[in-house]
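// run 5 | inverse folding | seed 20
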């Protein structure tokens, strides 16, 4: 069993528990920024350092992201722009081995720091590596008694787990981008199938009305009424497409306000009555809020485009566990879920279930021909 001053050959029970807590903390999230923050805070706590930072490089000699722990928001703002990849920091982003210094200020590569930067002496840096690719680097500074071989071993273990957590988060964000691209492709397909066909019909009907004006005015008036109806339907479809293309303002407005706004627009754009109410909803983690919003949008899409619903009710309720329950109910013609599955039609159900599972949620669907549809999503809190 290693002591605190010996190279790491085994973990003492306390440190084993601390590493376990750190790994769970950084592995329980899928947003890259939150994963970086958890890794940084865990490294600082685990090794007892005063300051910690984690940098992810970009392709232009700087950092795509740089997270700090132990520095106040006021200090961080005073420090100024993100650091460049130079000096001691560059070592961690170009070499696979750690760097441990008794005084970083005496290192040959040290190039100083901004006036507002806190004073640092002892330093330990560890690259975060996935096979031969350096995903980023953890930097620690200022520990009573300095950093030891044992500390370096602990940080190496943490960095190995951090690479898995960071790679998973990056893959998750990439999958979300692909999902968004797929949704946009679906919207384009819907636009072609629905709006384009209505506009084509409108054009033909208008031509027919023009030829009947002189010889059959009554029939011409009927054709013009049909033109008006088709134009109104096309306008409804276009408004719905605009709503789906418009980026959700979750960051600025929050989930409740964003959902309320979208429901209000859909209520104006469609003949169906679309209503929303909420109660006791707390702020959820970003991934959960995004999942709730997308499931709500998919459920509304199905109700308004496919179910021919006359009324759609969207409710959002907070739960005792600080999570939320979304419920979308419509009085449309409904369907047989098992029959839909057998026929290979999805109505977005696969997408909704995938979103629920990704954030640890649970999706249930109740429907039958002639009895409308109820979609319910429950997501956990932080």
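// decoded
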């Amino acid at each position: 069993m290693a002591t605190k001053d010996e190279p790491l050959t085994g973990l003492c029970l306390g440190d084993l528990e601390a590493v376990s807590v750190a790994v769970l903390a950084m592995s329980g999230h899928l947003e890259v920024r939150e994963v970086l923050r958890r890794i940084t805070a865990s490294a600082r706590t685990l090794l007892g350092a005063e300051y910690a930072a984690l940098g992810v490089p970009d392709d232009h000699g700087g950092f795509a992201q740089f997270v700090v722990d132990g520095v106040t928001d006021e200090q961080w703002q005073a420090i100024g722009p993100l650091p460049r990849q130079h000096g001691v920091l560059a070592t961690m982003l170009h070499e696979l081995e750690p760097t441990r210094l008794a005084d970083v200020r005496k290192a040959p590569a040290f190039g100083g720091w901004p006036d507002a930067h806190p004073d640092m002496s002892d330093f330990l840096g560890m690259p975060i590596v996935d096979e031969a690719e350096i995903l980023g680097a953890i930097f620690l500074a200022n520990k009573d008694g300095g950093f030891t071989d044992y500390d370096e071993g602990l940080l190496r273990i943490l960095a190995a787990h951090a690479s898995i957590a960071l790679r998973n988060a990056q893959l998750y964000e990439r999958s979300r981008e692909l999902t968004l691209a797929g949704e946009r492709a679906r919207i384009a397909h819907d636009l072609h199938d629905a709006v384009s066909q209505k506009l084509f019909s409108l054009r033909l009907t208008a031509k027919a009305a023009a030829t009947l004006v002189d010889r059959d005015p009554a029939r011409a008036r009927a054709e013009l009424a049909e033109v008006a109806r088709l134009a109104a339907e096309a306008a409804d479809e276009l408004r719905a497409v605009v709503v789906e293309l418009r980026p959700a303002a979750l960051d600025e407005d929050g989930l409740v306000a964003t959902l309320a706004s979208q429901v209000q627009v859909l209520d104006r754009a469609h003949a169906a009555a679309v209503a929303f109410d909420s109660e006791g909803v707390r702020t959820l983690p970003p991934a959960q809020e995004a999942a709730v919003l997308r499931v709500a949008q998919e459920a509304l899409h199905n109700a308004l485009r496919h179910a021919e619903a006359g009324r759609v009710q969207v409710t959002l309720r907070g739960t005792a566990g600080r999570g939320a329950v979304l419920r979308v109910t419509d009085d449309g013609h409904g369907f047989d879920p098992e029959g839909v599955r057998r026929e290979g039609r999805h109505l977005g159900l696969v997408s909704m279930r995938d979103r629920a599972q990704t954030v640890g949620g649970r999706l249930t669907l109740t429907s039958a021909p002639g009895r409308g549809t109820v979609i319910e999503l429950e997501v956990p809190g932080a």
